[in-house]
Write a structure and sequence with these properties.
282 residues; alpha/beta; two-stranded antiparallel sheet; 39% helix
Length: 282
């Protein structure tokens, strides 16, 4: 049986409690303080000068609970380099070990091999993980509104900003958008992006049109990131037509023999197909 979101979060809380015992938070804070300054994840994606073009957060993911093994020959450093060469604006790196086959150590390995900012993608449920992310070299973290109450979310956004990391605040449904909407951009507008996850975290099914339905309630679309279910240049064109120019793409790239070439093809439609996704009549 595939795990539910509740299963994943329950296990994550146990993992964090164990980590706090193994490596006290004071040790983690000291490591975070010794790290180089974070790269500007927000600026790499939400720069006004880049409006009208799609910026891709390219994801490194070995497996998932819904899809199983996605990539058997898994080398995060090689994949990151291919993504950078193909035009990725940033990297997302899965660090959950049990369900996704990730590892916290991948963050530093990837960051040392590319010049792009790196997002730690995990199920963050405790401020310990925010410190841990910075100590591992992360430039940004994912915060999932569906698993955090309002107070926890705000506290972690403040801490991330103090550590100069960007937060990608992810929502799936309208209820959670209403919970976080007034806080997006807090405590500083240059440190927060709003992610709309097209994957239902309970059923694990994806639907790209979910972004379009949620967008009607979002005022500032230039900080919106559409996540999951994005596979073709036509998908990117549809999103741009709705004012969404940032996407997070992983599984469709990771399944290809060369993820970098797959990203290049996504960003550069074949001859005869225009950048807006329409086939030429010539």
């Amino acid at each position: 049986m595939k795990p539910t979101l509740d299963n994943i979060i329950a296990r994550k809380r146990v993992e964090v409690a164990r980590a706090r015992t193994t490596t006290p938070i004071d040790v983690v804070k000291a490591r975070a303080g010794a790290m180089d300054a974070p790269r500007n994840f927000f600026g790499a994606l939400a720069d006004d000068r880049l409006r009208g073009t799609t910026r891709v957060i390219a994801e490194i993911k070995r497996r998932s609970p819904s899809a199983g093994i996605i990539r058997a020959d898994f080398d995060p450093v090689d994949i990151a380099r291919r993504y950078e060469a193909a035009g990725a604006a940033a990297i997302s790196c899965l660090t959950d070990e049990y369900y996704f086959g990730g590892h916290l150590g991948y963050i530093q390995q990837v960051r040392q091999s590319v010049r792009l900012p790196v997002l730690r993608k995990d199920f963050i449920v405790d401020e310990y993980q925010v410190w841990e992310s910075r100590a591992a070299g992360a430039d940004a973290i994912l915060l999932i509104a569906e698993v955090l109450n309002e107070g926890e979310l705000l506290d972690m956004m403040i801490l991330a900003k103090e550590l100069r990391m960007t937060t990608l605040v992810e929502i799936h449904d309208v209820e959670n958008l209403l919970k976080v909407k007034r806080h997006i951009g807090f405590p500083h507008a240059g440190y927060c992006l709003l992610g709309i996850n097209n994957r239902n975290l309970r059923t694990m099914e994806t639907d790209l049109t979910h972004t379009f339905r949620i967008l009607d309630m979002v005022e500032d679309r230039h900080i919106v990131v559409s996540e999951s279910g994005i596979r073709t240049s036509e998908d990117l064109a549809k999103l741009r037509a709705h004012g969404v120019n940032i996407v997070l793409v992983g599984e469709s790239l990771m399944r290809e023999p060369d993820p970098g070439e797959a990203l290049r093809a996504l960003l550069n439609p074949p001859l005869g197909q225009s950048a807006n996704g329409h086939v030429s009549e010539y």
